[in-house]
Write a sequence for this structure.
């Protein structure tokens, strides 16, 4: 009888977690818990990768840190959960994570059918190929008959098949669950090329034994706007994550940096006053505090600083701003105003 | 009937203390509770899915898949095939690995199991060493080892080894000339299966003495060769050999054996073979020593003693745990996802799940499929077990 009771209690506990897993008030849950649960990559340099000491770093990671900074005034109150491309949506849908910041492409079906909302594009990417230099291939259009290694559970698989089909090329693809295994197979010669988002290719190239023997082909075969995702049904939380990104972009545009944010608090510029909460109730309107942007910039930095630190000139990847420059500098990063 | 009538048995206890009544009540209560818990779970999941607007239902089955699969036993194209078709491709790939794996693991297992009991010291020690080494290393690690070993051992595409008869071997796989039957392929394959079924029936008849061994053999050959040939002629096929053609990056045409497939089968066979070897060893040791001694005393050779006296009796002990090993092998084949072999889990609960986002439906289907495969294997093995079991008289 005792065993029976234990079984019953265990089942009831499982049922309870299922029933209460997804709550509508994510912000309250996060505050009550005291940490933000952030779904991140875990294997992608520049976007989400823990170092040897277990400190997470990357563009997506910093987005989560910025959200935590805005809520708790502490960028370290984040629990990062490493997710594969395949598990990520289930983890967000079931409430295991509050935000999915894992270089995830914004598509119509993910926005609707999956029950998720893309917040704002924090990196404009596109799919490309990496190939051995000694194959003397200069363009992706020369890849007819090639074998291509690819990671599973991504839009990448679909883009790859589409690209080869629309250019009337024959394709053999080998699909792996994890990036590391796909790259190892590419390196061993199992595949002629490896394909993923261009940002990822630079990271992969660094991981290869002889990076200089490999070249990233110039073609970008798809649009990959990468965005943090949240669940349907909680507009307040959706707004918070979206506006944390916008705040970082606005801060860059107004030249509010980690170093000068304290001085900028005394600025006469009305836009900066509104941004930093010196004037207006804009933080409270979101359910945060007056000084939410101050907290973000102070602890994490503006978008430009984060970009350069994680993927740009301050990182081994050395990716140029390109499409991710501010709209004032010929890029696509454009944030609605705070007012 | 030696037992006295039940009515005149022990005096009737009050209902509440009647053990049969009490156990019945407990069972019913447990069932109701279980049903309630299941209902609660399903209802909670349904409500959560509805609240977050996650799509549900099986409408995705007929939607175009759009992705490429590296090994397809049936026609599949990324441009026109559906998710449903992708499911069948994955299922067949899983069944292929399971079928080949089970046959090879049985051979390896019996060989090693018998070798463990060999009177030759070196052979016995080597066999024991193999079992201990393989049983104690996680299967996933072994699969990664085999995959890397296969890839590293084989030459690069540009240094492909030419095999006699027009085949090639490189780290993309083994490429062999294939037989193109001009559209009659599926018919010939079905006819071959029918032929094998006929052979099985003939063997049973011959065992019961209904037909002679010579007739059975002749009819078997006729069934296996004749039926496919007839199907080929009726379907109006044309036979031609297709040789693999070298292109800039790859070989196309003919039969292609992927390195992922070889690594997966090798890993599963070596791993499961070690467990089967232990089962076989235990079974052989369970046969009383007297049986061997008696057979030897009759002047039978050691080989005959093993195959005709010991193993048939050992099968009674071996079969039930052997079934477990077959089921394990089938289920373990889902680790294919780690080394890029497109099995059911990789294609269906991997890519299809990710593209449709319908985790509940897809995982449920996959679980049902593995359950069906396992139950079928178990039923077949139970039938066999009933045949070899000791008949008590």
């Amino acid at each position: 009888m005792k065993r029976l009771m234990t079984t019953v209690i265990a089942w009831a506990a499982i049922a309870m977690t299922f029933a209460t897993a997804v709550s509508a008030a994510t912000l309250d849950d996060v505050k009550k818990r005291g940490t933000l649960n952030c779904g991140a990559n875990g294997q992608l340099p520049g976007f989400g990768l823990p170092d040897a000491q277990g400190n997470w770093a990357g563009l997506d990671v910093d987005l989560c840190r910025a959200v935590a900074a805005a809520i708790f005034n502490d960028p370290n109150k984040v629990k990062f959960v490493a997710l594969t491309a395949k598990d990520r949506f289930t983890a967000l849908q079931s409430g295991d994570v509050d935000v999915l910041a894992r270089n995830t492409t914004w598509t119509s079906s993910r926005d609707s059918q999956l029950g998720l909302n893309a917040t704002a594009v924090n990196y404009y990417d596109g799919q490309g190929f990496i190939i051995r230099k000694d194959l003397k291939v200069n363009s992706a259009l020369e890849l007819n008959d090639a074998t291509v290694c690819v990671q599973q559970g991504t839009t990448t698989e679909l883009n790859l098949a589409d690209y080869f089909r629309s250019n009337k090329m024959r394709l053999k693809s080998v699909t792996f669950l994890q990036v590391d295994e796909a790259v190892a197979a590419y390196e061993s010669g199992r595949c002629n090329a490896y394909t993923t988002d261009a940002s990822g290719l630079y990271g992969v190239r660094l991981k290869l034994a002889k990076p200089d023997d490999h070249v990233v082909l110039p073609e970008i075969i798809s649009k990959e706007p990468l965005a943090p995702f949240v669940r349907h049904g909680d507009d307040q939380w959706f707004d918070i994550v979206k506006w944390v990104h916008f705040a970082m972009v606005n801060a860059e545009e107004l030249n509010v940096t980690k170093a000068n944010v304290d001085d900028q608090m005394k600025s006469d510029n009305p836009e900066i006053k509104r941004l930093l909460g010196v004037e207006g109730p804009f933080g409270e309107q979101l359910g945060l505090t007056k000084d939410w942007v101050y907290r973000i910039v102070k602890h994490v930095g503006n978008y430009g600083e984060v970009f350069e630190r994680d993927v740009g000139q301050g990182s081994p990847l050395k990716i140029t701003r390109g499409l991710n420059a501010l709209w004032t500098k010929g890029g696509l990063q454009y944030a609605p105003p705070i007012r | 009937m030696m037992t006295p009538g039940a009515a005149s048995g022990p005096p009737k206890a009050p209902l509440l203390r009647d053990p049969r009544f009490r156990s019945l009540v407990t069972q019913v209560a447990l069932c109701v509770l279980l049903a309630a818990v299941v209902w609660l779970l399903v209802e909670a999941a349904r409500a959560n899915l509805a609240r977050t607007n996650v799509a549900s239902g099986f409408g995705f089955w007929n939607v175009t898949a759009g992705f490429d699969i590296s090994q397809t036993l049936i026609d599949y194209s990324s441009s026109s095939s559906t998710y449903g078709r992708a499911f069948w491709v994955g299922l067949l790939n899983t069944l292929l690995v399971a079928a080949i794996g089970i046959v090879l693991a049985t051979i390896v297992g019996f060989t090693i199991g018998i070798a463990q009991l060999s009177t030759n010291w070196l052979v016995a020690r080597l066999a024991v060493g193999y079992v201990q080494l393989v049983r104690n290393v996680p299967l996933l690690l072994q699969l990664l080892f085999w995959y890397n070993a296969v890839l590293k051992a084989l030459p690069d595409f540009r240094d492909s080894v030419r095999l006699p008869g027009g085949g090639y071997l490189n780290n993309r796989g083994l490429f062999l000339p294939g037989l193109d039957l001009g559209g009659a392929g599926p018919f010939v394959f079905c006819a071959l299966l029918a032929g094998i079924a006929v052979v099985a029936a003939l063997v049973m008849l011959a065992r019961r003495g209904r037909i002679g061994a010579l007739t059975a053999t002749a009819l078997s050959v006729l069934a296996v060769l004749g039926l496919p040939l007839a199907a080929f002629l009726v379907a109006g096929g044309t036979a031609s050999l297709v040789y693999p053609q070298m292109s800039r990056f790859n070989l196309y045409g003919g039969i292609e054996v992927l390195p992922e497939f070889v690594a997966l089968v090798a890993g599963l066979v070596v791993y499961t073979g070690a467990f089967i070897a232990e089962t076989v060893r235990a079974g052989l040791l369970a046969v009383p020593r007297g049986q061997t001694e008696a057979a030897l005393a009759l002047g039978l050779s050691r080989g005959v003693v093993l195959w005709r006296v010991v193993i048939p009796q050992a099968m009674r002990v071996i079969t039930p745990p052997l079934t477990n090993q077959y089921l394990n092998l089938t289920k373990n084949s889902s680790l294919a996802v780690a080394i890029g072999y497109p099995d059911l889990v990789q294609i269906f609960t991997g890519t299809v799940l990710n593209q449709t986002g319908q985790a509940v439906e897809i995982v449920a289907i996959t679980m049902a499929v593995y359950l069906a495969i396992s139950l079928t294997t178990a039923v077949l093995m139970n039938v066999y077990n009933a045949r070899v079991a000791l008949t008590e008289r």
